[in-house]
Amino acid sequence: MIVVLSSILGWGVDRDWLPFNVAYRVKKLPIGSYIAWSESQVETALTCFSEPLRRAVLLAAYTGQRRGDLIKMRWDHWSGRQLYVNQEKKRAGAKDIEVYIPIHPRLAAEMLEWKKDGCDYILENCGEKWVGVNLSKRIALQVRKFGLPAGLNMHGLRKYAAAMLAEAGCTSHQIASITGHSTLEMVEHYTKSARQKVLAREAMDKLQDNFGNHGKTTN
């Protein structure tokens, strides 16, 4: 809202209709963060959601892409083994980036079936390309219908994908190569909880390796 308002007011300033732009450089408000889906919540969606929506959940969970990039994916962006994504960056001055994503076997098997529908876009609703807002509204309705926590949305699936990569032992650079994050700071923010689990498991494994099951050294 601030970006749009600043643009409108700036347009007025350029035409000498306003003395200054009061929305220029307004600080961001602390609005919190998106809720990451859990593995069980993703599986519930894949089992219960209507077909067009479960496809969106699966594609988001296994690629870590934003909603806007997901609905733009066409079949000619998929080679059978990897997806090509031209990520649109909305921040002022940020350039779009190209990302190549190897496809997980589970997603690849489903995509082979989806392609038989003969659609232009990988995600479609009754033969028509999704509009982002409509997709989000439909996901929210399904979340409510099947008793999942309020607040789960498409961006939460992006956080889920990053967390799963972190739990698999991927570095921040490796995760960013999939999700397309321009800074490692955001990747680390997304994966903080997942990394804690990995480190905790590694710590306990080391404790067991060195002291055994009964608190006695194995040396």
UniProtKB/TrEMBL annotation:
Pfam families on file: Phage_integrase
In this protein, which residues make up the domain named Tyr recombinase? 32-204
Q: Which UniProt keywords apply?
A: DNA integration, DNA recombination
Q: Which InterPro entries match?
A: DNA_brk_join_enz, Integrase-like_cat_sf, Integrase_catalytic, Tyrosine_recombinase_XerCD
Name the domain of life: Bacteria
- Name it: Integrase
Q: Which organism is it from?
A: Komagataeibacter intermedius NRIC 0521
